[in-house]
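re the bet — no i am not wrong, look at it urself. input seq straight from the record:
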Amino acid sequence: MYENMTFSYLLQRMLDRVQGNVDKREGSIIYDALAPAAAELSELYAKLDVNIDLAFADTSSGEYLSRRTADFGVNRQAATRAKRLGKFYGSSGAAMDVPIGSRFSAESVNYIVRERLKVGSFVLESETEGAAGNQQFGDMLPIDYISSLARAELVDVLVPGEDEESDTQLRSRFFAEVQNPGTSGNVSDYMRWALSVPGVGGARVMPLWDGPGTVKVVIVNSDKQPASEVLQHAVLDYINENRPIGAEVSIVSASSVPIRIKAKVTLAAGYTIQLVSAAFAKALTAYLDETAFRINYVSIAKLGTLLLAVPGVLDYDRLLLNGGSANIGLEIDEVPIAGLVELEV
């Protein structure tokens, strides 16, 4: 908006306002007096441009985006802690219970026992906020001494830990809520309630799925994978606190549909099939995560475009999805996930 308000432009405007019979050449008294003011004004105009961007949600960022969305009741979601399944075994190999509140370590992350599920199986919570609590698997070491404990194992991710909501995620959620306001338990309300629960990465609402007054909500976790029972119960509890009286709500996990890809590719000089395969697998995962619940089929043409966009790929041939050359259809409660990628030259 103020791109033309440069130092030279402002200085010339100021010099033009001075009487013509005054020496205005560089190095003159009037020039040297006006130049510092022009420099300061040019910086001010540059900052004004930034401040205007910070005032609107589509261009704002950081703290200012948080303040803008908070005006409409949409607050940035803080980082959350992962909830994991832990299994514990005694010296005889049999499952055994451990005290609630006992602590264990897996590599650089510590976990604390929060809830008993059954003998030897407990819900553990990461002491570290964010996605770091999702990464560890396998044996754990007890921080507190526990008699007769022979082995502790960290198994499934029940509720993924999430990093603080990014600007892109907050902006997308803000526009979704503002442009599709919830009213009296409509679809937008149920979508907003489901996505407000930490660990939920996507949702689809099916009203009247089993007759009047019934609502089914299909969810995935923040990794766009099927949701655990723990996460499903958390979503159901939260929605029941907010839903209209009389509504019968069911929460289910989406089913995953692995997408296996096989193709022959032509590589540019200096690229290897291993490097290209890894880059394509990453691009495929990102695309499928982004489109979860937004598409009702996986397009072979779209995946071909993704493959051509990978650095080092000049062309491809014989592209197959799950062994066939057609699109992969998805049911309303299914989400695609990246499967095996087999590229050859």
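see?? DSSP finds eight helices and 14 strands in the chain. told u. also The chain has a mean pLDDT of 92. so pay up
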